[in-house]
Write a structure and sequence with these properties.
Elements lengths: L3 H20 L3 E5 L2 H12 L5 E4 L3 H6 L2 H4 L5 E2 L8 H8 L4 E4 L3 E3 L4 E5 L3 H7 L4 E7 L3 E2 L2 H10 L1 H8 L4 H5 L14 E5 L9 E6 L6
Parallel strand pairs: 1-10, 2-3, 2-4, 4-7, 5-8, 7-10
Antiparallel strand pairs: 5-6, 6-9
This protein binds iron/sulfur cluster.
Length: 211
């Protein structure tokens, strides 16, 4: 995000959104760069020695977290290098920490995620003792309705990225498909995080991350 006005706008929205998430029981951080986000994640948010599950995320991918998570200091449930993806995702439900991106975040402190299998939203809702979300300010919407629409609208790109054989992965247009590869099956709205103090952490980055 090079344009200084976009950067300024991102900071205003990012700081206000981070405050809204804090009010809803999240531990929230606002940072300017991907590098700062990575440092914050590994220096402050994620203790050494814990078990870690992962949700598929372009943002985590851009942060290049895998080499560190694989260096032996963590017990990683590695969904990207495993014999049985289904079992790794099941194990991840009991990880100490679950790391993920988000499909959308609202200015009022709500999070929206859409899944195919539900493995990511299941872990975000319950199971792991801690959930850490890293996301760019481009994920912030003004309303919950816009957040849900955003989660739906990016599904074609997620299908393309994950090799799902859906109509939208060919044309970019949703046909409300009815096939096994359908991406849009599970929708999670995280309204509030006061239930388990300290469970949810948000790292909001003033960059365009993922889609
Ligand atoms: S419902 Fe099917 S066609 Fe529509 S966006 Fe989701 S996966 Fe693509």
């Amino acid at each position: 995000m090079d344009n200084k006005y976009r950067k300024w706008f991102g900071e205003q929205r990012g700081r206000r959104a981070a405050e809204a998430f804090q009010q809803k029981g999240w531990q929230s951080y606002y940072v300017e760069t991907l590098g700062e986000a990575k440092k914050l994640l590994f220096d402050t948010c994620l203790p050494k020695g814990v078990s870690v599950g992962l949700g598929g995320s372009e943002t985590l991918s851009a942060m290049d977290v895998l080499p560190i998570l694989r260096n032996g200091e963590y017990k990683l449930y590695d969904r990207y290098n495993c014999a049985d993806h289904f079992e790794v995702c099941r194990d991840s439900l009991m990880a100490d920490y679950f790391l993920s991106g988000a499909n959308a975040l609202t200015m009022a402190g709500e999070m929206v995620n859409m899944d195919c299998s539900g493995s990511r939203v299941a872990a975000m809702a319950y199971g792991p003792r801690h959930v850490i979300v890293a996301a760019g300010v481009n994920k912030i919407t003004d309303t919950l309705e816009e957040a849900i629409a955003r989660a739906k609208s990016i599904a074609p790109m997620n299908c393309k990225r994950n090799g799902h054989k859906t109509p939208c992965a060919e044309t970019g247009v949703c046909t409300d498909c009815n096939i096994p590869d359908r991406m849009c099956n599970q929708l999670l709205i995280t309204f509030n995080a006061q239930k388990f103090a300290g469970k949810y952490t948000l790292i909001l980055i003033n960059e365009d991350m993922g889609f």
